[in-house]
Amino acid sequence: MTERALAIAARVEAFVRETVIPYEKDPRCGDHGPSDALVQEMRVKARAAGVLTPHILPDGSHLTQRETAIVLKASGLSPLGPLAVNTMAPDEGNMYLIGKIGTPELKARFLDQLVSGESRSAFFMTEPALEGGAGSDPSMMQTLCHRDGDHWVINGRKAFITGADGAKVGIVMAKSEDGACMFLVDLPDPAIRIERVLETIDSSMPGGHSVVLIDDLRVHECQMLGASGEGFKYAQVRLSPARLSHCMRWLGCATRAQEIAVDYACRREGFGKKLIDHEGVGFMLAENMIDLQQAELMIDWCAGVLDDGSLGTVESSMAKVQVSEALYRVADRCIQVMGGMGVSRDTVVEQIFREIRAFRIYDGPTEVHKWSLAKKLKRDHARAHAA
């Protein structure tokens, strides 16, 4: 690991532990995430501490994925940490995508405000499931776009759009006669209407998750990311690192839950001795140690693959499955160790459990990734036997 990454991660960890964690009890943290006023208040402090958007360097270059891993883990020690230092989804993934695909003009218009932490963004891809729209299978996309002079006109409905309420930048996916397309848009826009904000199990992301109607949205052709029909390819450019970034952040949260559970077990007494001295409790915390270490190793391995220039779709699928399931076990055991305190909101462990449970679904449910990996095994077997 590089000295620069270790130094950045140390500063981020100190900031999260000393400045951000006290905000976890702030009444501005609601069911649909912390308010934008709270986010901006924390970002003012992060900017002053020199830890805002720490994964993007002053010259605009990006830390390697392995370097990013230890920085995002440090930011994730609180559910509010990634928001405070501007490493949270969907902004972190959107910044990565615009940085890779966007023209200089699009970067100046849309990327700069995200890197500076002034604005939030949303990624409009998922559609209502019961209407047959795109979810884990993006090829089912029903949002359509067609050219009208030097503009594109977009119509459709989207669902589970994280942070749409309050976002200033949107990346909208729609299907043209060429295939999938991506457009950068300024928000709010009267043609993009939030129908409702869903009530969901998680509560860490500002704006919550919305169902959105897109009605005759007109976007100038210069706001298309890349070329018409290339949207699914660009989505993979974003999604492979984004899946891994989720793993990094939630590893930080699960590590914090383990710290709290260990502290509780070392202080709480029952049946004549400390809880940690009961094998049933001590073994659960020991299993957590193993799962956390395995998750960290998987993240480091996948990050190395991405740093070597691979698209990393297979590796990120494996990491998403292994890490999300391992961290869920960690959070679940922490709840069990802490008993009544675990299911109460007196500590952040209860929220971490809810957040990591949702992580097993978004960016591809575990079962979809396993199915994709099984298909690869079948293809590899067929090629091997054909040869």
From TrEMBL:
Boundaries of every Acyl-CoA oxidase/dehydrogenase middle domain copy: 122-199
Location of the Acyl-CoA dehydrogenase/oxidase N-terminal domain: 2-118
Keyword flag Flavoprotein: yes
Acyl-CoA dehydrogenase/oxidase C-terminal domain residues: 229-377
Pfam families named in the record: Acyl-CoA_dh_1, Acyl-CoA_dh_M, Acyl-CoA_dh_N
Keywords recorded for this protein, A-Z: FAD, Flavoprotein, Oxidoreductase
Coiled coil: none
InterPro entries named among the record's database cross-references: Acyl-CoA_dehydrogenase, Acyl-CoA_Oxase/DH_mid-dom, Acyl-CoA_Oxase/DH_mid-dom_sf, AcylCo_DH-like_C, AcylCo_DH/oxidase_C, AcylCoA_DH/ox_N, AcylCoA_DH/ox_N_sf, AcylCoA_DH/oxidase_NM_dom_sf
MF term (GO), any: acyl-CoA dehydrogenase activity
Keyword Flavoprotein: yes
CC terms in the record's Gene Ontology section: cytoplasm
Gene Ontology biological process: fatty acid beta-oxidation using acyl-CoA dehydrogenase
Entry cofactors: FAD
Source taxon at top rank: Bacteria
Similarity comment: Belongs to the acyl-CoA dehydrogenase family.
Subunit structure: Homodimer.
Protein name: Acyl-CoA dehydrogenase domain protein
Source species of the chain: Rhizorhabdus wittichii (strain DSM 6014 / CCUG 31198 / JCM 15750 / NBRC 105917 / EY 4224 / RW1)
Top-level taxonomy: Bacteria, Pseudomonadati, Pseudomonadota, Alphaproteobacteria, Sphingomonadales
